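Fold it.
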Amino acid sequence: MWKDRTKVGEAANALKLSASDLKKLKVIDGIIDEPLGGAHVDPEICAQSIKHVLEKELKDLLKLPVEELLKRRYDKYRAMGDFEEQ
C-alpha cells in the first residue's frame, strides 16, 4: 500500500482486515473463536469449532423457505460495506 514494509500494521488497519472490522462492515456473519495462540496450535479443536458452527447455521437455514433465503442473501450483499465516517 505504502511500499514500505514497516507500515504493514498501518495498512492492515486502513484496509479493515480484522475479523471485528469485517463483521462491522457486514462482510462476515460471525467470528469463530480460535484456540489460545491461534488455529495452528490445535487444528483439531479449530476444525471441531468450525464444524459445530456450520452444522448449527445450516440447520437454522434449512428451516427457512427459499424466498426468505433469497431475500436475506440479497439484503446481505446490498448491506456489505455500508459504514459511516465518524
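The chain has two domains: 1-31, 32-86.
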